[in-house]
């Protein structure tokens, strides 16, 4: 009998994917994943509470949705919680299918999830200022009829926000198609404008994706989708009933009340540091810095691979973006001390 080989029966679209590589690179300063550098500990939240682990979590995550709704002054019925926003991207593509359209370079998961679900994807290159190519996007909407359009603003990895006018035109064109536009606002808390929440009332094909990951709670895995009830109720059909565990629901809800002032302080501190880091980086010869409204900065050097490796040797881990943007590196804004050390080492390398 032939040996059983699962690779023979795997779906065609899965063959092109590889498993997520969680290769740990030892470092003393970790500035590669756009996390918050400020430690938040489990014991800050659960020292005195009894959480029943023999029971399933609330499948509706009501307390957490209500806590989020209060912060945004919207109804909790317009919020759906995911195990990170990654899961919500997956649910959206599973529910509405493809084609999926997004500008590039951007967050890789839109393409990876489209590929795993098995839907077609269309990519539109950003212009030389990393802004959206409005004409091409609108053309693709009309000709390819995407079901979902993902726009990360501020965009990862470029760091900039896109022109609001261009996005509004895209949403308006998409509405007639009809397609849903998802504005991924993972980095909105670090950004000077208010994002797309105020436009939700104007467009029923608009949804907004946010996360607690970038503002201090990446380990918890809480993402949330904001949209009208009809849209959410479709996506809710594929949501696994217990997608957000009991500890996560408890801690995230507590963090939004007890810990919120602290979170806001951390955000202010990161924005301050980002501005300083940007200024200092631009003073280094051989570095081109791009504007950022996020908690990270994209910059270019002559030989990014060499700089990346030398930084690792000094215990500093950043992200090598050269496979998507030539000679580009992405550094997450760390604490004042971490940023100082990063700048010192980079200065020595260049
Ligand atoms: N969207 C963007 C633009 C991101 O950069 C990231 C994380 N890198 C995510 C979504 C995923 O966030 P989460 O941790 O909530 O899954």
List key phrases describing it:
350 residues, 13 strands, seven-stranded mixed sheet, four-stranded antiparallel sheet, alpha/beta, binds 4'-deoxy-4'-aminopyridoxal-5'-phosphate
Number of strands: 13
> Ends: how far apart?
60 Å
Order of secondary-structure elements: HEHHEHEHEHEHEEEHHHEEHEEEH
- Overall SS class: alpha/beta
The overall pLDDT average reads 95
Q: Compute the number of helices.
A: 12
Bound molecules: 4'-deoxy-4'-aminopyridoxal-5'-phosphate
Outline: globular
Helical proportion, percent range: 25-40%
Query: Main sheet, how many strands, which sense, barrel?
Result: 7 strands, mixed
Question: From the alpha-carbon coordinates, what is the Rg to the nearest angstrom?
Answer: 21 Å
Strand content: 5-15%
**What are the low-pLDDT stretches, counting only 5+ consecutive residues below 50?**
none
What topology, given as strand order, has the largest sheet?
2-8-7-6-5-3-4
């Amino acid at each position: 009998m032939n040996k059983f080989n699962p690779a023979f029966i795997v779906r065609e679209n899965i063959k092109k994917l590889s498993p997520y590589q969680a290769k740990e690179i030892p470092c003393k300063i970790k500035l590669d994943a756009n996390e918050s550098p400020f430690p938040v500990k489990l014991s800050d939240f659960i020292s005195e509470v009894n959480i029943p682990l023999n029971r399933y979590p609330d499948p509706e995550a009501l307390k957490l949705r209500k806590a989020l709704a209060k912060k945004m002054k919207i109804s909790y019925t317009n919020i759906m919680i995911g195990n990170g926003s990654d899961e919500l991207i997956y649910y959206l593509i599973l529910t509405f299918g493809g084609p999926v359209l997004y500008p590039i370079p951007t967050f890789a998961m839109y393409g990876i999830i489209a590929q795993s679900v098995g839907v077609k994807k269309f990519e539109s290159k950003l212009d030389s200022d990393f802004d959206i190519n409005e004409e091409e996007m609108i053309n693709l909407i009309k000709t390819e009829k995407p079901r979902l359009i993902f726009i990360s603003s501020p965009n990862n990895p470029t760091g900039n926000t896109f022109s609001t006018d261009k996005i509004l035109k895209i949403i308006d064109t998409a509405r007639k198609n009809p397609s849903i536009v998802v504005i991924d606002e993972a980095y909105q808390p670090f950004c000077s404008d208010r994002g797309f929440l105020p436009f939700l009332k104007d467009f029923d094909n608009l949804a907004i994706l946010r996360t607690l990951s970038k503002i201090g709670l990446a380990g918890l895995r809480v993402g949330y989708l904001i949209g009208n009830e009809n849209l959410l109720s479709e996506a809710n059909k594929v949501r696994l009933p217990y997608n957000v565990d009991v500890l996560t629901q408890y801690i995230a809800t507590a963090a939004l009340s007890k810990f919120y002032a602290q979170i806001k302080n951390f955000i202010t501190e990161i924005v301050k540091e980002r501005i300083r880091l940007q200024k200092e980086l631009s003073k280094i010869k051989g570095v081109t810095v791009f504007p950022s409204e996020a908690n990270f900065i994209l910059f270019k050097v002559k030989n990014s691979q060499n700089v990346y490796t030398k930084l690792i040797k000094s215990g500093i881990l950043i992200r090598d973006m050269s496979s998507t943007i030539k000679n580009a590196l992405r550094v997450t804004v760390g604490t004042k001390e971490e940023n100082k050390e990063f700048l010192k080492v980079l200065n020595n390398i260049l």
